[in-house]
Design brief:
Layout (H helix, E strand, L loop, with lengths): L1 E7 L11 H12 L6 E7 L5 H13 L3 E9 L2 E4 L2 E10 L2 E5 H11 L3 E9 L12 E3 L2 H7 L7 E5 L9 E2 L4 E2 H13 L7 E2 H16 L4 E3 L7 E3 L12 H26 L2 H29 L7 H16 L13 E8 L3 E8 L4 E8 L7 H16 L8 E6 L2 E6 L16 H20 L12 E5 L6 E5 L5 H8 L9 H4 L2 H5 L9 H17 L8 H12 L5 H14 L11 H15 L10 H12 L5 E3 L3 E5 L5 E13 L2 E12 L12 H14 L6 E5 L6 E10 L2 H19 L2
Parallel strand pairs: 1-2, 1-3, 3-7, 7-9
Antiparallel strand pairs: 4-5, 4-8, 5-6, 9-13, 10-11, 12-14, 15-16, 16-17, 17-19, 18-19, 20-21, 22-23, 23-24, 24-25, 25-27, 26-27
Helix pairs in contact: 1-5, 5-6, 7-8, 7-9, 8-9, 11-15, 11-18, 11-21, 16-17, 17-18, 18-21, 19-21, 20-21
């Protein structure tokens, strides 16, 4: 396990700072990327008191250790009475904060239970020398003297500048040291093995600050580069630049800019021409040039330390931002913009018309104001990549990515989002089928390692099928909200959106492992269920009030058992502590399925005739018109379209006055299931079989035996199934688990 304590302080009583909170937030966000996987405790402003920092240290020292402990601090640092300190938010002249000797002691204790202990300190800021009359700014010798013992398992990387002038970048809203650090963490510090080590990161920071003009960081420790912070990046390519080659690259960059500038001037001269083809011409002209810039920086990352290159690239990004300014009727890089569908923290979504045939698509264009925010850009691209992994009819399909402007094209869904759509809340069967479809879709995504993290009405588009089939949900914007939630919480209070549906840990501890776990989506699904059943947003600060409102709405339903099941489901999924909730979406879906089965008992009696069982099961599992059933067989296809399902009644006996069935479930991979590794045969099939065995371990009433049809086939025997509502719900649960296990290719 990798742990981090991340501190940022702007709010000092004397000499406040500007960007330390931004520094800390973005460092924590970077460390929680999949390449790093840190569980971060973030302390900002008043939270970063002397006692707050000591509690954070104690928490980690008492937790049993792990692979790495990283401590990051952005705030004032000063030497007072010859003792160097990290200045805390509650500092007083007689007790200014955490001394370097105390920090060194914590590092020493942590080294006994962590393999690596790392301190990263950005505490050389303006005003540190005027906090008190007898204080002075930290110098290199203070770091050397204050934290003397650092070995290969303990590393120190610190900003340092002797003069008092602030070293901050107003354009990026970061301290320059941390700006370089963030660039290194986001890929600029990667080595030839696709890793970011402490040594490579320190080398990158030193080169960046040196190119910017003089600031020299302090690095002590693992000079062999064995402390690996993160991995899984594209390996660094190319050889170091030489003088003549650097000049040639910059000359080529300048020529690209000059050539594009001439094209842009020609297209911009006539405003009407800009909308009727000029913008599209410029996008086509800029795309290969921008791709060359990006490819060059990937192959030769050290060029980003060259000021001429940086200025040229900034100019290209400005051109890129200009192409994001779309208006209705404009011919864009992908087609004609028809209307603005929606907007959010990441950008805007346009309905566009493609080509001669007039096909409609949706074009999500990144916010041009954030094109210099590498972390936000990476999150946006991750969202596209994650949606591309998912092949499911209830997940909006992404098609292609564009760099000029920065955005991606996806299928257009002809329907409103759930907040605007009509749902017949008086029809319990329709409502529960709609919710079950959403839950199954999220479960499918989880099976492929993709969390949603932003389940709310605005991210569910609704269409309507044939008469009587009810509303159909389509989910979008997977894995985009984690970064956005952290930035927009203050703008969403009381108006719906993030704060009403996000789990508490997303809002208050967004950089912890808990905020990246499946229970986040469990919580949001429960709040979405509230919205669907009640017709308004849940109150983020009143769980008891939500339960009362849900109870009042469900009192109109005739079956009290269904109402109680849904109320208990909401309660069990919305506990404040993630560990107290239902832990998986599969568990959530099982309870919802039981409620749906109860609704299907139109007579109010549990018993189901044998001849009706398969038909009732098909209705419960697939819905109207989506299954075939006889008296002893039910056939359907999973919601994703990737698994064919057959259920057969093999035997029926009466036990203790209850009709009891033995069922055979046949599941086989459909032809369109995207499993390239299945072609290798035996190994892939064994992987799925082991997964199914694990899912049904301990359930002696379910037995698996293999099939030999097609790409993959399996049979499950289910024993002692009562021909009742309870039996229907049980079979549905077995089917849901089995399909999920197969689709996790």
């Amino acid at each position: 396990m990798r742990h981090a304590i991340v501190v940022g302080i702007n709010q000092y009583r004397k000499s406040p700072l500007a960007y330390c909170v931004n520094d800390a937030r973005d460092v924590a966000d970077s460390l929680t990327l999949d390449n790093y996987g840190y569980d971060c405790d973030v302390l900002l402003n008043a939270q970063a008191s002397r006692s707050g920092l000591r509690r954070a240290f104690t928490k980690r020292l008492d937790a049993g250790g792990g692979e790495t402990l990283l401590f990051y601090f952005a705030g004032h640092g000063a030497v007072i009475r010859r003792t160097p300190y990290l200045i805390t938010s509650d500092s007083e002249e007689w007790e200014p904060g955490i001394s370097f000797s105390e920090l060194s002691q914590v590092m020493e204790e942590a080294a006994e239970i962590y393999r690596n202990v790392i301190s990263v300190l950005d505490c050389c800021h303006a005003g540190a020398s005027v906090l008190w009359a007898n204080s002075k700014t930290l110098s290199r010798s203070d770091f050397e003297r204050g934290i003397p013992t650092v070995n290969e398992s303990r590393c120190l990387l610190a900003a340092c500048r002797a003069e008092e002038k602030a070293v901050e970048d107003r354009k990026l809203e970061h301290g320059k040291f941390t700006a370089a650090l963030l660039n290194g963490l986001l890929g600029d510090g990667v080595n030839f093995d696709g890793q970011v080590t402490m040594f490579d990161l320190a080398k990158h920071v030193a080169a960046s600050l040196g190119a910017a003009g003089g600031q020299v960081p302090v690095f002590k420790g693992d000079i062999a580069g064995q402390v690996v912070l993160g991995d899984g990046f594209p390996p660094r390519r190319g050889k170091p630049l030489e003088g003549g080659e650097l000049q040639a690259i910059n000359s080529k960059a300048q020529k690209f800019i000059d050539d594009y500038h001439q094209v842009r001037l020609k297209q911009k001269f006539d405003l009407g021409n800009w909308s009727n083809g000029g913008a599209r011409t410029c996008a086509a002209e800029l795309t290969p040039k921008l791709d060359w810039f990006l490819r060059t920086m990937e192959e030769r990352p050290e060029i980003k330390n060259n000021r001429t290159w940086v200025n040229n690239f900034d100019q290209v990004v400005d051109y890129q931002a200009d192409l994001a300014n779309i208006s209705p009727g404009m011919l864009t890089a992908v087609g004609q913009a028809l209307r603005l569908i929606g907007s959010g923290g990441y950008g805007r979504v346009w309905e566009v018309k493609l080509g001669e045939n007039g096909e409609r698509a949706a074009y999500k264009v990144f916010n041009s104001d954030h094109l210099h925010d590498k972390l936000m850009i990476k999150r946006f691209r991750n969202g596209y990549d994650n949606m591309q992994k998912l092949n499911h009819p209830r997940i909006v399909r992404v098609r292609s990515f564009t760099t000029a402007p920065y955005g991606f094209l996806m299928d257009f869904v002809e329907g409103d989002n759930l907040r605007k759509a009509y749902i017949n809340r008086d029809n319990a069967e329709v409502v529960l089928r709609f919710l079950s479809d959403i839950v199954e879709t999220v479960q499918h995504a989880h099976g492929h390692g993709v969390l949603h993290r932003d389940i709310k009405p605005e991210n569910i588009l609704v269409t309507y099928g044939a008469e009587g089939s009810g509303p159909i949900p389509h989910l979008t914007d997977f894995d985009l909200a984690y970064h956005e939630t952290n930035r927009t919480i203050t703008t969403n209070l009381g108006v719906g959106g993030v704060i009403n549906y996000a789990a508490p840990e997303q809002l208050h501890a967004p950089t912890t492992q808990a905020a990246r776990s499946e229970t986040v989506d469990v919580y949001s699904l429960a709040q979405l269920m509230f919205f669907v059943l009640v017709g308004r947003d849940p109150q983020s600060d009143s769980r008891d009030g939500n339960i009362a409102a849900l109870t009042k709405s469900l009192n109109a339903w005739t079956d009290g058992r269904v109402a109680q099941s849904l109320i208990r489901l909401y309660e069990s999924a919305t506990f404040r502590e993630p560990g107290d909730r239902l832990q998986t979406v599969q568990e959530f879906g099982a309870v919802l399925g039981q409620a749906e089965a109860q609704v299907l008992a139109a007579s109010g009696l549990d018993a189901i005739a044998e001849r009706d069982f398969c038909n009732r099961l098909g209705h419960l599992v697939a819905g109207i018109g989506k299954y075939y059933a006889t008296e002893d067989v039910m056939e359907t296809r999973s919601l994703s379209g990737q698994v064919d399902v057959s259920v057969r009644i093999k035997d029926a006996q009466t036990k203790k006055n209850t009709l009891t069935l033995r069922l055979e479930l046949e599941l086989s991979a459909a032809e369109n299931i995207p499993m390239p590794q299945m072609k290798s045969g035996h190994i892939a099939r064994e992987r799925i079989n082991k997964r199914l065995d694990k899912l049904f371990k301990g359930d002696h009433r379910v037995a698996r035996h293999p099939g030999n049809k097609g790409v993959y086939q399996v049979f499950l025997d289910i024993l002692d199934v009562p021909s009742t509502l309870e039996g229907l719900a049980r079979v549905r649960d077995v089917l849901a688990k089995a399909v999920s296990g197969i689709e996790q290719w």
